[in-house]
Amino acid sequence: MDLKISDMIAMQLALWEKHKHEWSPMDAEHARSFMLFMFEEIGEAIAIIKKKGEAQIMNDGKVREEFVTELADVMMYYINTVQCFGISADEFSEAYVKKHDKNMGRDYAKENREFLASDI
To answer: CB 118: neighbour CB atoms within 10 A?
Structure first.
């Protein structure tokens, strides 16, 4: 299975519709809350890396499932944030491709050297 961004948006909207009376509104004013929950889920994924290590994530099915589940939680809250700002799948996809194209032309080693040499 390979979900599209539009599928993830639709799924999260359906979940929110089911719980909208208990959850924060899906609007820009509440995007911060969804992002904070996303950061909490990132922390849970990091905790698995710290406690179990990369080798167990790669080789232990149960640990891997827990780790992937936490990453899925991260994506769910990320998609909620996208929804809060009314960003469409097309708008996000266009920005992603544009940023990817820009990054493909970047010289990261040069940028790092210049940053290290700067007065910042």
So the answer is: 7
